[in-house]
Amino acid sequence: MRTARLVLIVAVLLAAVWLGLKEGLDGIRDAETNGQRLAGGFQLLYGAAAVASLAALVARASWFRVPFGLCAVAMTATAALAPVVWGGTTWTVGVISGLAAAVIMGLVYWAAVAHFRPSAR
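RESULT FIELD:
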């Protein structure tokens, strides 16, 4: 179970690194409005925070919560903003999207806390 949990955490964080850094740079480059630039900035932020989260995870560092929390907040903000500023949807859709991202990151955090807990053998 520990291995499956770790694979899930690493997969989500690696996806966040790629989507945050690569797509964030593309988003900022293609942005035409301040909202799009803000969404791209949050995307870059969660990508960079995901890199730090992976480093802390590998090191089993106690400061994992700081970059992961930053990653989760920035990802939630991006998920809420992007459908509105890029897709032209309503803020209701943006809020639902942001809440979905927050739930997913909450589950990943829960898995990470369980991973850090010493195993009972």
